[in-house]
Amino acid sequence: MPFELTFTGDAVRVLKDDTAYAGYFQMRKLTLQHRLFGGGWSEPLVREVFERGHAVGVLPYEPETDSVILIEQFRPGALRDARSPWMLELIAGVVEAGETDVEVAHREAAEEAACELSELLPIASYYPSAGACSEQVRLFCGRVTQAGVGAVHGATNENEDILVHRVPRLEAFAMVAANRIPNGHTLIALQWLQLQGDALRQRWSG
Asked: How confident is the model at residue 1 (pLDDT cuts 50, 70, 90)?
């Protein structure tokens, strides 16, 4: 039989839900209890949860050149990184109200990389840091028909300054092996491509 988790959402009681901070992002302060594996309920716990909305990421793959399109941009959360606070990443963006994941993927691809995608395949959905953040990321691989490689793109009203790169698939895999891809979304998508890349290229090249 397939593996099933022990508990579902009805095994949690939210006793209090306060807004601890509201700005560009939001912080909630929760008082809650949850069921215990040994039986009964936990004592009331206080936990802060970072609310930043859900996100969609897309790894553009170009079968004609056997390359991926990656973007380079500054990330303030990586300021302490000894190598650089600039990262090589896949394309990603926050899901706005009323948007579908597919709409976000196409919008962000055009905005961040002047990239057009003719087809999207789902890769995975996951929580980057479920111990403290409510964000869920949904990843896709997109077939590239056009990309603004070598140019700078991004939304000016968001102060984005994004350089677009075309990276051969095997070179991207070598970067993963050398620990040169410190971004989780990109790392997961490239590892998926390591498993699926040959079949995907054959499919999309045909």
From this structure: confident
Active site residue 4: no
Each residue's pLDDT tens digit, 149-163: 999 999 888 888 999
The answer to whether residues 146 and 116 touch, using CB atoms and an 8 Å cutoff, is yes
Which pTM does this prediction carry? Answer: 0.91
Cβ distance 105 to 120 under 8 Å? yes
Q: Report the amino acid identity of residue 199.
A: A
Identify the residue whose tokens are 């789902």: 122
Q: How far apart are CA 128 and CA 149, in angstroms?
A: 28
Q: Which of 4, 48, 64, 158 is catalytic?
A: 158
- 146: how many CB neighbours lie within 10 A of its CB? 16
The architecture that CATH gives domain 55-205 is Alpha-Beta Complex (3.90)
